[in-house]
């Protein structure tokens, strides 16, 4: 999921293999909307229950992390 409000951005997703998350994020920099975007908060959470194998991850731009969008 991608949320954007002006220069404020939040990216959330799920991945089965944690080692692929940095590669995905790196590939985003090749996309025009993300080329100049800087994220200052990155979080990976373990699956909540035994039935779920995917890790959840989220990234916030500086403006969001400073008090914008909350979950």
In short:
The chain has 71 residues and is α+β, with helices and mostly antiparallel strands.
Order of helices and strands: EEHEEH
Main sheet properties: 4 strands, antiparallel
DSSP strand content: 35-45%
Integer count of domains: 1
Topology at a glance:
Elements: E1 2-5, E2 8-15, H1 21-28, E3 39-45, E4 55-61, H2 62-65
Antiparallel strand pairs: 1-2, 2-4, 3-4
How would you describe this protein?
The chain has about 70 residues and is α+β, with helices and mostly antiparallel strands. The protein has one domain (about 1-65). It has helices at about 20-30, 60-65; strands at about 1-5, 10-15, 40-45, 55-60. It has a four-stranded antiparallel β-sheet. A hairpin with a 2-residue loop joins strand 1 and strand 2 (about 10-15). It is globular. The two termini are about 15 Å apart. The mean pLDDT is about 80.
